[in-house]
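INTERNAL AUDIT FORM
Audit reference: QA-55
Scope: verify that the stored structure record matches its stored sequence.
Auditor: D.O.
Record contents follow.
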Amino acid sequence: MLLHHLSLPHGPSVPTLGQGTWRIGEAASRKAAEAEALRRGIADGLTLIDTAEMYGDGATERFLGEALEGLRDDVVLVSKVYPQNAGGSALERACDNSLKRLKTDRIDLYLLHWRGHVPLADTVDGMRRLQRAGKILHWGVSNFDRDDMEELQEAEGEARDCACNQVLYNLTRRGPEWDLLPWMRARGMPLMAYSPLEQGRLSHPGLEAIAARHGVTANQIALAWVLAQPDVIAIPKAGTVAHVAENVAAAAILLSDDDRAALDRLFPPPVAPTALEML
C-alpha cells in the first residue's frame, strides 16, 4: 500500500506512519518476533524508525543495530538524547554511544528527549556541531510546548533548522491542537505523535461502533484519525507482524465527515490552553 509522505524542513520525505520502539528489544524471549515485525513494517513502507538512548538503557538501540542489518540505508532513523546529555562534550559522547549501539555512521534525525537544565543555546550549538561532523543529518526536539518552541527559536537565531517536535498526541490527548500544532503548521514543521494509540488502551463504546461500521478495530480508527491530521507523523509501536499489518491497514481507512464529528463528540478538542502531557 502506498503511504502518505511529508517532508521534514530541510530534510527528507518520510512516511506519515512510522514505527516506535519503546520497550522493544528488552526481553530476549520477544526479540525474534519484534525483529520480524520491524522488518515487515519496513517492507510495507514504514521506514521511519524511532528510538532513544533511554529505551532499555540502550538495549533498544542495540536491538535495532542487529535488526536493521542490511536495511540501514532503507530507513530514516530517529533517536533521542537525554536532557542531561544535551550540551557540550556530553552530547557528543551520547551521540557516539548511540551510533555505536545502532551500528551506523549517522543518525538521520536526533532529538532532545525533553527539556532539562542545559541551556537551549548549548543544545542548538551541539546539534549543529554534530551535523557538521556528519554524525547526524537533522535535529529536533521532543515534549516541547509552544512556549518551549518559541524559546528554541530565539536560541536558533536566523537559521531555524529544528526539523521536528515529537509529542504525546492521540484522540484522548488533544491538547496540542489548541496552540502548539497551529504554531508548528504555520512554520512548516511536522509534529511526530508518540503513543498515538495511548499505549493500546483506547477503548470507548462509541469508538467501537464507528469501527464496526468500517469493519475494523477501534485502534485502527484511532490511528486513522491521527494519520488524517495534516502535518502529523504517527509512530505506533508494533511487536508482532499481525500488529504491523493492523497499523498498515489503518492508513487506508477514510473517515467520513460524520465519523469525524462523532469522534469530536466522543473525544472533544481542547477549549482552552492545557499543559503538554507526557508519558
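Auditor finding: record pair retrieved intact. The radius of gyration is 18 Å.
Action required: none
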